[in-house]
Write a structure and sequence with these properties.
The chain is 72% helix and 0% strand. By secondary structure, it is an all-alpha fold. The longest helix has 23 residues.
Length: 198
């Protein structure tokens, strides 16, 4: 293992956890997440200015980092690598959100004919059918997950429980809820990748 000798003591401690995480040690994953969750969250909150988005992006960042943890090389601190993944993921999220769906020429036409820009929020029948099919597919995939991952996904995304409510419902610590949630998302991602249902 090629280690940068100029790494701080904290960064060297992280390396021990990273090596354990690479072996699939869930306690090491949880320890890394507990160590950096708050600082990642507050960095993302500054970027998106929305607590709910920042929370979801934090979970996504850890999910992406832990899925590709084998690619991390200790020439620089694990925290640097993690923050880079989190900020790049957030930038992608902001770009998608800011993409303007209305071309400029249509926008200008709207001044002469205000009806041009009026659109119903209701999906058309075809969109509704596609959405129903996607939901049915997602439910099938979620049902393939083992306990406790299935319950956590159902509580978070079907019943829209907060992390605190899930913790109380399943009688597990908040850190465990978050660690198991990104593990569940990672498992879902892998199932979708295998079945081409992205």
């Amino acid at each position: 293992m090629e280690v940068n000798r100029q790494l701080s003591e904290n960064a060297r401690n992280d390396l021990i956890l990273v090596e354990e995480a690479k072996k699939g040690n869930e306690k090491a994953f949880a320890a890394l997440m507990n160590r950096y969750r708050d600082s990642i969250y507050f960095m993302l909150l500054k970027m998106v200015n929305n607590p709910s988005d920042a929370e979801d992006l934090t979970i996504e960042a850890f999910g992406k980092a832990f899925r590709s943890i084998d690619t991390y090389v200790p020439r620089f601190a694990f925290s640097t690598w993690l923050f880079m993944i989190a900020s790049n993921n957030c930038i992608d999220f902001i770009r998608k959100k800011q993409a303007s769906p209305v071309p400029l020429d249509q926008w200008q036409d709207g001044f002469e004919n205000p009806a041009v820009n009026l659109q119903s929020d209701m999906p058309d029948p075809e969109e509704a059918l596609i959405t129903d099919q996607k939901i049915a597919t997602l439910r099938k995939v979620v049902n393939q997950l083992k306990s406790p991952y299935r319950e956590i996904i159902e509580l978070r995304f079907y019943k829209e429980y907060s992390y605190e409510e899930i913790s109380a419902e399943l009688k597990i610590p908040l850190g465990t809820v978050k660690a198991q949630l990104f593990r569940a998302k990672s498992l879902l991602y892998n199932i979708f990748k295998k079945t081409d249902n992205r």
